[in-house]
Amino acid sequence: MARTRFGSDVGLTARMTSVMFLLGAVFVALVVVLMFVLPAGWTPIIGVIGLGIAWGQWYFSDTVAMKAMRAREVTPQQAPELHQMVDRLCALADMPKPRVGVADLKVPNAFATGRSPERSVVCVTTGILGLLTADEMEAVLAHELSHVAHRDVTVMTIASTAGILAGMLSRGAQWGAFFGGGRRDNNNNTGGLPIWLVVLVVSLVVYAVSFFLTRLLSRYRELCADRSGAYLTMKPRALASALQKISGGMNAIPTADLRASSAMNAFFIAPAIKGVSLSQLTSTHPSLEQRLQQLAAIEAELSRPVDGTAS
User: pTM score, two decimals?
Assistant: First the structure.
């Protein structure tokens, strides 16, 4: 992670390393299978496409996310209070200040993205600006800055590449657009099955592995950011209150608006869904109850006298 005052997290580092290694292995396995089933000349093309997607995801991650959320970068003159909070938190964390953005959306949320702490952006929606108090907003921003400092937002962006490529191959295989729907005549390595069917099955397996690995990392990194942000501001109760307000505020948002923002769920501080979250296996976030329990434990720890005696 970047050298900041955000506490290091061995569990997060281990999970990011493991996810990147396993997804790299999955990507290599995908290329190897394609070498055996695709006509000669297709495998290098698929490899170049995969590497190109990974590079593009990494290099343009901040631009793509901002455009997807119809967000704009704001100056200190345009959003003085927001910039003042970010300035203070970055000074506390001893980290480079990211750009600051605002998305004109009713959905109360916030996210961070970017390929490095020096090339990152922290963005909030207009919906959250009108919902939270100053302490709650500062707690949310500390959470998002933790993602930047720990570089887990970068890892999540790159990790999604395998799933994107697998999804592209699945759609191509279904339509037979790239493979002609036939069999490989010169080397029947598909056991008589159509090439498109083999590619479809392999791509779906790769997508499923990528999906669950990124979900596992996403849930842990949210808990890590909650912890890091709470310790930085020393106000875990403010973050707990913010999370409750954000989750409750989702119920007032039209379903169509939530669905339009759902592609960014893995990067939001809280998923853009109503009511009960998705099952733990597929959710991008830990349950609200789990997050509140962790923050309550931090609150109790910070309130405990240093010498361990009763106050």
Answer: 0.81
